[in-house]
Structure formats: structure tokens, C-alpha cells
Amino acid sequence: MSEIASVLDTDALAVEANSFASANGIQVERKKTEESEDNLFLGAPMSLLPNAYPEQEFKKACDVAPAFNELVERVSQDAEFLQQTLGGGVSTMDPFTAKILKLYHQVYVDDSTANAPAKSADRLGILRSDYMLHSDDDSYQIKQVELNTIASSFAGLSCKIANMHRYLSSRYETEIEEFLQTNRKRNDNDNPPIVLFVVQDGETNTVDQRLLEFALWETHKIPVVRRSLTRLNSELSVDETTGALKLLKQEVAVVYFRAGYAPTDYGDGEDGIEWNARLTLEASRATKCPCLGYHLAGTKKVQQELARPGVLERFFPEKDETNKVAAMRTCFAGLYSCGDDATPEDLEAIRDVLDGGEAKYVLKPQREGGGYNFYGEELAQKLRSNIERTGDSLELSEDLAEFILMQRLFPPEQNAVLMRGGKVEGTGDSISELGSFGTLVVGSDGKVVHNRYAGFLLRTKFSGVDEGGVASGFATLSSPYLC
Ligand code: ADP
Ligand code: MG
Ligand code: MG
Predict the structure, then answer these.
(1) Which of 234, 269, 289 is a domain's end point?
(2) Is the CB of 369 under 6 A from ligand 1?
(3) From the record, what ranges are coiled-coil (predicted)?
């Protein structure tokens, strides 16, 4: 019998959890099939109980959020840095990143008067910095897995999971304790400005998105319209004099992207209607969340470049009274380039993999959404087949330029009960990844109007599973039990 099942009646608790989840909308949408176009909602993947989490490290993730917000803002404004980091080998090997970079230049760098509305638009960031606990000596510390600047999901559902765990653990206190010990305003006219959610066709994580929509309506009476990039193309226009973005007759004040981060969101290809829609949105005066610069600042290649000595300092040249540079740096794990900018240290890490040390690393391409990383033998193979080694010297094939090599993190294992589709999927050892949300509003003059920590997400998966991601089917939603 598993550790938890010996203490708790997990089946009975799963029934409670499932009912709470249904009553409170902790749900995802079922993929529509050819047989059925019915709208059906299922229980979201979730962890039955919270996971123990060291309070001090949790607090660090909250406290450092505004610093990462500011970093993204500054990186987004540094065209030279973005070009240097993403222009060379990365762009050659990754047409998607190349296209985003090209649009960024077209809209923000080129000196055309058509670009005035975009340049004078405010910027909005909803970011999520993800961490795993890792111990190099005797204490666990948070290390950044990645920084998400586009479509950072689960702010909506995450609070509800914490509520469910609060409910279960107060109602079933005695039983669970034992387990836990072990482990803006509306304009007065007929066409008020709207917020446009850019979404994927066939999206299943709609409840998480709708929670933001309902909150906008309830708190500010701001209507949300949801559209795919494909459909938008024919419905958008930009007023030539003011730069106002119109969806049919309504002005769009804010464009919130929950799509557009994957090549598959641009079905029609390189010069297709989806890319055209993205350009129209970006070139308007509407606030984009994220703007192209923020999108680029969240790439894995930029993450790797920012970890190099002196690069954070370049973005924070002023007196650093709150020590934010040091606070961010302590969150960085080992990050190494596999491109022609690889330093002797980077090459040493690559050599370590070739010599059999692959278990200590993860190889990542410039992609979002989970499921693309290389681990273990597959990682070693990928490097071996793209590197020529003569003695101590390494010749890296250009195919590797879009990849970064990262130190693999080993978070502490805990016993967990994971649920999927309303059923207990299994019980066993699990590891968790903490997401720390940050929100940021910056005027076109670069003045930071709002910069805050904005909540957390804890995702839990079985220890044997390499990849993460809830929507991609690897992880479940959970919450931290601070200890
Ligand atoms: P994506 O943008 O696709 O989410 P991530 O960098 O978050 O890319 O990688 C996906 C998943 O792979 C993470 O959620 C995590 O589970 C796992 N992972 C990524 N980097 C590491 C690492 N350095 N150590 C251990 N696991 C990792
Ligand atoms: Mg990501
Ligand atoms: Mg991720």
C-alpha cells in the first residue's frame, strides 16, 4: 500500500475533491471530436492534496517577481541585444523566432511613420517565472526553469485549487494533518473598448481563460471578445490617423495573447493570414500582452544569455539599492549555449554530456508549450550526432544553434495522489514546479506604472516523467503547503 493510502481514504477524498472541483469550476474543456461537437467540461488534472513547500523559498519566488518584470521590460527595449542574441544561428535554425524578431524590427526599429501608434502604445506584461527546488549542497533552493512572457496560463485555476486544498484540509484536518507532516472604467458610449483574447481553435484550457474574462466584467464591466488569429485577419482594421485598433466596429484597448506562441498557431505559413493578423495587432496603438519585445525576452536563448556574467548588470546599470540583480542571479541554474557563441565553460558542459554526464542536463529548443526537450540518452544522441570531436576540440553543427543546454534540476520527491478526468490516476512519488506570476504596466515613455507579484501556480507530476505542463498532459495543478 502506498504511503498516503495507508493514512488516508484517498478514494473517498477524491470524491469530495471532484465534487468541490465541479461545483467551483476547476475544469478544462473536452476536445471536440468528429462524433460530438457538444460542449463538455471535465475535471482539470489536479493533485488531491497540497505539496509541502519551504516557505522561505516560496517567499523568494514572490519577492523577485517585480525584478524579473523589470528585466523583461528592459530587455524588450534593447533591440541591439535581441538582435545579437537571437539574430544569428538561432534565427537561421528557427524560422519562428526569426519571424517574431523580423516583425519586432519592422514595428519598433524601422523609422516609418506607420509605426508611430505602436511605439506610443502602453505595454502590459503578465509573466510567470517557473522554478524547481534544487540542492547543490545541503539545502534546497529555487532555480528558474524558464520565464514565460506569452500565454502564461493557470492564474485563474490556480487560486481555485488552493481553495479546494484549504477546504479539504480544514474539513478533514485530522486525517490530512498526519499526511502533511510527513510530506479601468467603461466609457459612456455605445461601443465601449473591449479586451481581445487571441485564442487557439480547439483550446481545452478555456475555463482558466474565462475566469479572467469574468473577473474583467465583474470588476470593471469590460467586455472580452475571443478570436483565433485565423478569424481575426478579416475582422481587423487600424485607423490611419489615430492608430486605433478596430475589431469590426469596436475599439480594442488591450490584446491578450493566449495563442501565437507556437508555429501551429500560424496555419497559413510564413506570409499567411495569421502572421498578417499578428502584424496588424502589433502595429496598432492597442496595448499588447505581450508586445513582440516581451515575447522575445521570454525565449530560452535570451534566458541563457541573461545568465552570463555581466549581462544582468548591463540591464541594471543604476545603483541597485534592493539587490535585485543578486536576487535574480541566485535563481539561475547552469545555462550553456550550443551555438557559435559558446564559451569555454559552455563547451565544458557539452563535453561533460559527450563523456556520459547526460543525466545532469536538459537540452531545450526555442519552443513553448511543453514536450520538446531532450533528456538522458536522447540528449546524448542529439549532441553526439551534431558534434565532431577531435581531441579536446569540438565542432558544433549549426543545427544546435537554436538549442540551449541546461543543468537538470532535481526537486525533492513527495508522495502524491494525482487526478485526471475526475479519476485518481495514481499514487506515487512526485516532483513539483512553482510558478510565480508577475504583472507589469509600462507607459510608452518607459515609465513603470504598475509592477507586482501576482500569485502562484504549483504543478505536480510523477517523478519518472521528464516533461512538465498541465495542458500537455504531464502535470497536475496543485498548491503549496508552506513549511
Ligand atoms: P516550455 O516552455 O515548453 O514549458 P520548459 O523549459 O518549462 O519549456 O520545459 C518543460 C518542462 O521540462 C518543465 O515544466 C519541467 O518539467 C521540465 N524541465 C525543464 N527544464 C528542466 C531542468 N533544467 N531540470 C529538470 N526539468 C526541467
Ligand atoms: Mg514556457
Ligand atoms: Mg514551462
Answers:
(1) 289
(2) yes
(3) none
Give the Cα separation of 139 and 120 in Å (integer): 47
Answer yes or no: are the C-beta atoms of 277 and 152 closer than 8 Å. no
Atom of ligand 1 nearest to the CA of 134: 24
Overall size of the chain counted in residues: 483
C-alpha cell at 352: 561533460
Is residue 142 in some structural domain?
A: no
Q: Is 285 a catalytic residue?
A: no
pTM of the model: 0.91
Does the ipTM exceed 0.90?
Answer: yes
Nearest CA to ligand 1 atom 3: 370
* Interval 162-219: pLDDT, tens: 999 998 988 787 777 777 777 744 344 557 899 999 999 999 999 999 999 989 998 9
The answer to whether 335 touches 307, Cβ cutoff 8 Å, is yes
Number of domains observed in the structure of the chain: 2
The enclosing domain of 364 has a CATH number of 3.30.1490.50
Give yes or no for residue 261 CB within 6 A of ligand 1: no
**C-beta 408 within 6 A of ligand 1:** yes
Does 28 reside within a domain?
no
Q: What is the pLDDT of residues 278-329, one digit of tens each?
A: 999 999 999 999 999 999 999 999 999 999 999 999 999 999 999 999 999 9
> For residue 255, what are the domain limits?
184-289
